[in-house]
Design a protein that fits this description.
Ser/Thr_Dehydratase (chains A, B), Threonine synthase (chains A, B), 402 residues, pyridoxal phosphate (chains A, B), alpha/beta, globular, homodimer, Rossmann fold, TrpB-like_PALP (chains A, B)
Chain lengths: 402, 402
């Protein structure tokens, strides 16, 4: 039984690592002891690392997070073949791309939701509730459907049209509400229905207690192919992905399999950038006003302490990339055959901005497919007649000899 | 070098298997000797099977068609980590789903295009041209971009909006032309530009000479996980996928690794169904009038002899599924966590229609993600106020207690 393989031993406060809590229930509001009115501290999951089987990191590759069951919380919810995504070398850009668009709902969020929906099943909740207008909501809905749990998605009115269909498809109850009402409603729904929250309910971001553990598997997979890269560039909203990937490498060091962690670089939209501000000001987490950006998937007003830990412990940095830098990186990735949503290109945009030489491979995590973008569906090519002269003119305009 | 590993020895006519041609150039108009004014016969690629290394089928799983290089034409074009897709067991539906939405452009077409664009690179063509309003066109554009080749996509005006953005993203020249002008224009462009055609140019379908070889890898992957299934249900337009998967199993038999091939069931939209007609009437290939259907990805007026071979040689059948059957299968797959486009659900719809017990596993090939459907983007949930009474009413309507 997969569930019996977990070596998870409890929850540990990131606010004070000496503070430990039992594994159940997941502390969905973060660490109760260290959190204050202005800063919420998350918890992470601790494991009985001494008992990790030696063969865990000698497995053949493939999908399915259950292959990493010893280093994950118990997987009570069934999987959809998440993870096991390709690492694609793009020599023309000097990077490897970890292609997370190759997950069951075509984003990295499936790794988190396999774990977070498992937590909901583990506590016997009748359903899950999530505030999201994109990848996270759809992924939660898919894993809830697979597990036979109900799902409520609190979306915002401004979501891209294709994402509306995406959220609906899995049978979730999708409610579009004003953006600033989403978190209060999430708390209310949790209280009134007993549904398990799989997105954040706290002042600064703590998110789900178990969810980021799923992202560790990205590190395990990269390590199996490349060893420890020199640097990782990660599109960053609340920083759960950033933390998870860093933690995976930190565990490999702890287990004696790796000698160091890669430097992790958070890549936030310049329109906001709460993590960059927190790091610059020496704060655990903070909030900022957010200006306009099309990188809606990582457009966050608040940061979380997890991301601060990952940047500081890895000697990384918090970078700000603007929409033009992301759009250029997005275009260049597509011209190499990989079409991602704008937010997903933040990693390559950050790497380019840094203009730093690294002594080893550089990995950019690309989080999600191009179908999720704002503006998808607006490119309707004009219909032209079948006349050869017209077609030929268009080809000549495009520098194609005919 | 990957290119040196290919054991491809020539092209063989499907019209008369004793007729062999050199491997180069790819016969993009099918077999010149056996084709007639009414029926075009495709060619396939032959290999030096005696030299297939024993360890080929003992590799660990993973993406990248180059792992199967001995049994593919030379791979001159670089890859994008295509293939290595998960096989997901859905006990509630009694099937395994081969999830081809997990490819680089989120459809099975990437396996074909790695091979077909390699053929274009192999003949030194300056570019590729394809007639497609969906998955095939986008996939061709992606592989052409990766290989540094130009790409022309002849799309039709009625393509779904999201697909318009998809086709544009990879930098191809996208020309929307009247549907019945696409094949004549494809031939003209091929003649005038020297671009290599990666879609069909013949009366009945022959398609690309090398392309379907890429689909064989689906059989190799299924075999590694399950052995030989009892039955395969395959969404069918021109039948290249059907043929490729069947041929992969036929090769496993030839190599002494498997004892039999699975029965392969073609699942065509009932609105057309040229293969079903060809099989019923004992014809190699035929054409029909096509009525309205939303399954645009497999909505074909002509069939190809490849599909006829696969159905007959495997004791399979050509099934017709209507839009309502596909829509129900699509909904049920999404309620199990897997959102596919309507055409992709034809496999499960066909399995259900057959109501047959099989003595072994049943595999449905799901070809592509739900983002490609007509109607995606039309589901915009109504925005409701943040008032708890309103939200509570909506939850109660959805049978959620609160």
């Amino acid at each position: 039984m997969v569930n019996d393989q977990s070596l998870a031993s409890g929850q540990r406060s990131l606010g004070d690592p000496d503070l430990r809590y039992p594994l159940w229930p997941p502390l969905t509001s973060g660490c109760p002891a260290t959190s204050t009115d202005t800063t919420a501290y998350p918890v992470e999951v601790d494991y009985d690392y001494d008992r990790v089987p030696a063969e865990l990191f000698q497995q053949p590759p493939g999908p399915g997070l259950q292959r990493w069951a010893p280093l994950l919380p118990p997987l009570h919810a069934p999987g959809l073949g998440e993870g096991g995504t390709p690492l694609i070398e793009l020599p023309e850009h000097g990077v490897f791309v970890k292609d997370e668009s190759r997950n069951p709902t075509w984003s990295h969020k499936d790794r988190l939701n396999r774990v977070a929906v498992s937590a909901a099943a583990g506590v016997g909740a009748p359903g899950v509730v999530v505030a999201s207008s994109g990848n996270h909501g759809a992924s939660t809905a898919a894993y809830a459907a697979r597990a036979g749990l109900r799902c409520i998605v609190l979306a915002s009115a401004g979501m891209p049209p294709a994402v509306g269909s995406f959220l609906q498809s899995y049978g979730a109850v999708v409610l579009a509400v004003p953006s600033d009402a989403r978190w209060p409603l999430l708390r209310r729904i949790t209280a009134e229905t007993g549904f398990h929250p799989v997105s954040n309910v706290t002042t600064t971001h703590t998110g789900h207690a178990f969810g980021p553990e799923g992202y560790k598997t990205i590190a395990y997979e990269i390590f199996a192919e490349l060893g420890v890269p020199a640097a990782l560039f990660v599109p960053t909203g609340y920083g759960e992905l950033l933390f998870g990937v860093w933690k995976g490498f930190a565990e490999l060091v702890r287990l004696g399999l790796a000698r160091k962690v890669p430097r992790v670089f958070a890549c936030e939209p310049a329109a906001g950038g709460p993590l960059a501000r927190a790091v610059a000001e020496g704060l655990p987490a903070t909030s900022v006003d957010v200006g306009p950006t099309d990188a809606y998937a990582i457009n966050s007003a608040v940061s979380g302490y997890r991301a601060t830990v990952a940047v500081q412990e890895s000697a990384g940095r918090a970078l700000l990339v603007d929409d033009a830098e992301m759009a250029l990186a997005q275009r260049d990735l597509a011209r190499s055959g990989l079409w991602y949503e704008l937010s997903s290109a933040a990693g390559l945009a950050g790497f380019r901005q840094l203009r730093e030489e690294f002594d080893g491979p550089v990995v950019c995590v690309a989080t999600s497919s191009g179908f999720k973008d704002i503006g998808v569906g607006d490119h309707r090519p004009e219909v032209i007649g079948p006349d050869w002269a017209v077609v030929r003119h268009r080809l000549l305009e495009a520098d194609i000899r005919c």
